[in-house]
Amino acid sequence: MTERSPARHVVLAYSGGLDTSVAIRWIAEQYHAEVTALTIDVGQEGELVGALDRAKRNGARDAILKDAKRPFVEQFLWPALKANALYEGIYPLSTALARPLIAKTLGEAAVTLGADAVAHGCTGKGNDQVRFDVALQTLTPQLRIIAPVREWNMNRSDEIRYAQTHGIEIRATHDSPYSVDENLWGRSIEGGRLEDPDEAAPEEVFDWTGHPETWPRTPEEIEVTFEAGVPTALDGEALGPVELVRRMNQRAGAHGEDRVVGIKSRETYECPGAIALLEAHRALETLVLTREVLQFKAGVDRRFADLVYEGGWFSPLRESLSAFVDATQSVVSGTVTLRCFQGSARAVGRRSEHSLVSHELATYGTADAFPSEYAVGFIHLYGLPNRLAYAKRSTGAGAAPDDGRAARSVPHRA
Amino acid sequence: MTERSPARHVVLAYSGGLDTSVAIRWIAEQYHAEVTALTIDVGQEGELVGALDRAKRNGARDAILKDAKRPFVEQFLWPALKANALYEGIYPLSTALARPLIAKTLGEAAVTLGADAVAHGCTGKGNDQVRFDVALQTLTPQLRIIAPVREWNMNRSDEIRYAQTHGIEIRATHDSPYSVDENLWGRSIEGGRLEDPDEAAPEEVFDWTGHPETWPRTPEEIEVTFEAGVPTALDGEALGPVELVRRMNQRAGAHGEDRVVGIKSRETYECPGAIALLEAHRALETLVLTREVLQFKAGVDRRFADLVYEGGWFSPLRESLSAFVDATQSVVSGTVTLRCFQGSARAVGRRSEHSLVSHELATYGTADAFPSEYAVGFIHLYGLPNRLAYAKRSTGAGAAPDDGRAARSVPHRA
Amino acid sequence: MTERSPARHVVLAYSGGLDTSVAIRWIAEQYHAEVTALTIDVGQEGELVGALDRAKRNGARDAILKDAKRPFVEQFLWPALKANALYEGIYPLSTALARPLIAKTLGEAAVTLGADAVAHGCTGKGNDQVRFDVALQTLTPQLRIIAPVREWNMNRSDEIRYAQTHGIEIRATHDSPYSVDENLWGRSIEGGRLEDPDEAAPEEVFDWTGHPETWPRTPEEIEVTFEAGVPTALDGEALGPVELVRRMNQRAGAHGEDRVVGIKSRETYECPGAIALLEAHRALETLVLTREVLQFKAGVDRRFADLVYEGGWFSPLRESLSAFVDATQSVVSGTVTLRCFQGSARAVGRRSEHSLVSHELATYGTADAFPSEYAVGFIHLYGLPNRLAYAKRSTGAGAAPDDGRAARSVPHRA
Amino acid sequence: MTERSPARHVVLAYSGGLDTSVAIRWIAEQYHAEVTALTIDVGQEGELVGALDRAKRNGARDAILKDAKRPFVEQFLWPALKANALYEGIYPLSTALARPLIAKTLGEAAVTLGADAVAHGCTGKGNDQVRFDVALQTLTPQLRIIAPVREWNMNRSDEIRYAQTHGIEIRATHDSPYSVDENLWGRSIEGGRLEDPDEAAPEEVFDWTGHPETWPRTPEEIEVTFEAGVPTALDGEALGPVELVRRMNQRAGAHGEDRVVGIKSRETYECPGAIALLEAHRALETLVLTREVLQFKAGVDRRFADLVYEGGWFSPLRESLSAFVDATQSVVSGTVTLRCFQGSARAVGRRSEHSLVSHELATYGTADAFPSEYAVGFIHLYGLPNRLAYAKRSTGAGAAPDDGRAARSVPHRA
């Protein structure tokens, strides 16, 4: 694989970190190509503008910043929130949701610029390369995909040496063993001691949630208002989508909410706003959706999360799952009171004009409005199939229970 | 329960049969109410107009015929077809799909007429009363529901005697032990020897499909054209929805297609057009939907059928399932060739501009376009988790297989 | 319903509270029957022995205490734990799991004593009557079921007046608006202000978890050891099942863990040990089960919880779900470190000889052991179906992407 | 890839066809290895012994025949039958079920013979290579896998030329464009005109089912007896597993039952015995399993079929699914009458001591045994959630229906 067929113009998804800084030069050399560095703003922290200047000094033909925060929230985070998207029940998919957006934006930029290839900094292990490549191949199959880190054989020291040899300017960086990915929906931290599932994450890996000693000693309540499944206001103040997520990260993050230890291995997540909004959304759904919708939607939500984790955002299945989810959300409007305290956010109050709870009947003492014969009839028919199944079991084909004459509560006329 | 609080004006879903003929008078007597007979045409055979005259002679204040065939097909049958709705995998839900339409039409008529109650002829056993009552209570909760057959204690002989005593004119009827329900989507037959699941259905219960000796000795091919999941033409001839279903019943029915023995017990179905269209739709879907859509949709389709069978047509869950289904159908356009022969219809050809099958690669001899290394890489990563799971099993925590170093094909960066 | 056909000997599930204290006399009067009071110890707090004496003074022919704590844990709680049973994702089903055990024990006692009826104190609303009646009808269909509270029309004041009039000795009780059910797996509190879903639960309803001001300021770590899905030791100390659950309630409860606001409405739960054990079990499963098992088991677990909530413990489906679950648990052995702190317990470390994580490959720098061509091949085939589906979409039937020649990664020879 | 590291001793899964005949010599040359030819009898037709002699004459060090028919039926076909395994609802997985058995037998033979590699004849496209490789890597990871057809670049003409050049004796073969795989559970035919999904399969591809003109003009009934989900007798005659499947193929096959056109593309199946047994098993299950078991099992069955199709036989998930299935089968005992006629087999009668149908109640006229109040109560509570959901919808939060005071049929005490 030493001989690579040349590319003409490569648009690189550029983060400003070591990998993609080195990649600018490496791609130019290996593919005899011009390289445009594209930084996509999905709410990551850090000085993006300085990184762009550095990219140009390091050989990029051009360096472009694209603000994608609003489409990120509206087209990716809100659909995920409506689907209660928590992979394995714990991870809000912050990195997994940003990848398809970045791939789409990257591919569109390459088409616009007339480039013949795109490049990303994923390694040859892990889900991220799958998400990038699958999205790119699906949306812009005419573009060649270059993955420098997957193709070369450099480790971190090699990269630093390559940078020094080639006069590549890299960000002064403390020698952290961790790799961090960050956007509006959360931070993912991997590497170092986090590789060992039996090691608790050290305090140093956290950033958005301060040290436990700084967490307030008193709870803070936040009212989140939803319209059709989408949050629109905090404490009654209407907020745009980007601002709302940011504000939620700050407020819930201040209470340390919510640090999650990764799945099977190896990542630690810090997603305070996401976790708090997901808790509020879930609590509102239980108030307004019927039990049979909740039960079936649980399976849809789970499939949605698995699919997004595995790189399937741009797929007919994901779109169809979203159609189901959207159809359920028209009644998910109302207000949830979250109580943030010491590392967790709990829904402690919920109200909605679509509430299926009715205060009157719930109260003791009004039972007479509701004939107890109804309950007796319901129970009789509801339990009939199991009753008969067990009767057969205990007695063979012999004595059936006196009333167990049919297998179904409601047998005739299908 | 002998004393009944009076009603004012009752709209009765009137079929013209013995039960509802007797019910006109019985309701008038028991509830001191005026009765309007409403016959809803969902494609059942029989002289509906004569029945209306009889209703008036039997004491109905008015007798009305409403043609609901087109909404039945467009609003109930097509959504069911798109969901491949076969209860327990065999029953096209012909009766179950008509019930909510009839209940809705009945309730709307009662509201329009200013009536305070509706009545239907269901017995106190079986799913039909559930479907009627639940739909009526959901859509028109302000209306009282009267179910004469469920309330009175008459069997068939009692009813005939009641008719004679009260001078009620009933249709001359051969003394059939069977109860039949019929509409555009099929016939359901129950009663008599069909009660015994170990008895084959006698030839006499069938009507739409002739005697096997009359079935043609040569197959007949029918081309069904679909647009977005809905059939629009037969053999290239564009047809309206009602005519298309009718034509399909005749053509597939002539070959005896498709008689189905009921579930657990007790019904026999004769639904030639429905079964043939469902087979064609299913065959087209396998050509144009991705495997992951087909797999998830199988569960959605199953839930849809169960829900409709159990009376849940008018429910948030059914609507949301339909939203999923509809989202999958945009590519379900194309033409299927059915071969009808001796009691069954099979899809023997399928074509679509959305076909996911590509003729070239499928053909032997072009393997070189498709690097076999891709397959080796795929298999290696695809099989990794099970490989490691079994390695642990056989050896305890000891020797891992040489390449089994990770539990997931694509481990990093969630 | 004033006239009741007499019973001979009724065994009453007796809690010692107001309802069942009054019921002893009421049943005797209404049914002309002898009443045996049976108290079943499932770990509820309170002086059970004193209650038995009181039952006899109040007219019971006999009063019996049966210790069912160990079968409760082994036959009900452990199967639920293995199925990660959390109804709607939040409620550990403490009350729902005890009901079938109590019903079974009650029915068996009645059969042993030669009684012809059983009685329980459920109201005519709610799931508890369903759980009791269905279990009793399934297991001991020959017994008549009497539900005094459902049958009579007394509210709390009526009951107290009835007790005074009839000289029934009742426990001196502060006039709490709450109704509490308690066993080893948790406390459920309902009534009073809890009826309103928009009201946060007041501090006074909590008992096992102290006031937040008493929660320790430093985290506590607990090591939970599992064998085949069942916890067997805490901090390395082997414990019997009852003792283990108790110890967990105390230790996690001291940190306030974990108070849950109920579903749709109306209950508040306090289940510190259950929640902590469920968190530990879930965390261990993600370490040792393959992704495809985790994904399918999520649906099984959800169905299990729904079914138990709805009264279906004794059913062929629950038994079959448990068979699936048990088959997955042979590798769920290992140790989880929980960190309890300020109202929540989080798994922060996990180790198992069946771990599917392999430390070596996870570490950066060994990528060369794992050919990146494998990943490229995997991605190519994995993404093929969606790639082709989108190509069709954008171009009609026209230009397929250059490599999109087949709909499936692995097309031939089914 | 021209240079291959040598193997020592390769055990080849040998069918006697062109591919594997040529492979003996090719492997010996390319890998400088000794080759043992292993033919595994899974019920395929053809003179296996003659093929073994030919293998030796063509250079195999040894040629071995292993009869695996009984383990094939007992360990693979019966579990699949119990799971109603039909991929996409139509294909009985005949080829897919044999692959893991062959891979297991091949690997075990290689270990026994002290070989260091195994070889199979799969191409580099399609599922079969996945099934072989994944099973081999899982069970015998220490063995190297060689796939000559995937590795070389020969088409059919190349292979014949290679055979002629190297003096390889091949079976005289008419120049069929089709590729056939055959075992006890069915025949799969691919290639030629079958590649085009819009072409009906030509008559010439069928072998087990004769020409339609030969199908009897009168139906034939076959009684199939099951014990715990497994067929044990035909027409009352107890038969061993292999003989039973064979007999069923002959009897159902004589009536042309059941030819299936493949999925998405490209295969045609001829599986008369499998389809007939699956129909009988399904029909018996609907008689004896409760509705909630049938509904959940439908999803388990579907996952089972998908998993087996995709090569996952040897996996923790398949084993756990089988545990669920087995737990449901204890009551699947009884006798089904199949009617075979003109290309299809239908269950027309069913009896079982575990039947959940009860003849008495089903019959009209005994309704009085079953209070109609039960039905009214059931319907009232069953329909409550949807009723309230629609009430909210139509009126906003305003007027609730008079009885719609609670969202759940059975609200209290979770």
Structural write-up:
The structure is a homotetramer of 414-residue chains. The first copy, chain A, is an alpha/beta fold. The longest helix of chain A is centred in the first third of the chain and has 20 residues, at 94-113. Chain A has 14 helices and 14 strands. Chain A is 42% helix and 18% strand. Chain A is elongated, with a radius of gyration of 27 Å. Chain A has three domains: 9-180, Rossmann fold, CATH 3.40.50.620; 185-289 and 332-356, Argininosuccinate synthetase, chain A, domain 2 (Alpha-Beta Complex); 360-408, no CATH class. In chain A, helix 2 (48-57) links the parallel strand 2 and strand 3. In chain A, the strands form three sheets. The first copy, chain A, has a five-stranded parallel β-sheet with strand order 3-2-1-4-5, sandwiched between helices. In chain A, strands 10-9-8-13-14 form a five-stranded antiparallel β-sheet. The interface between A and C is large, with 90 and 90 residues.
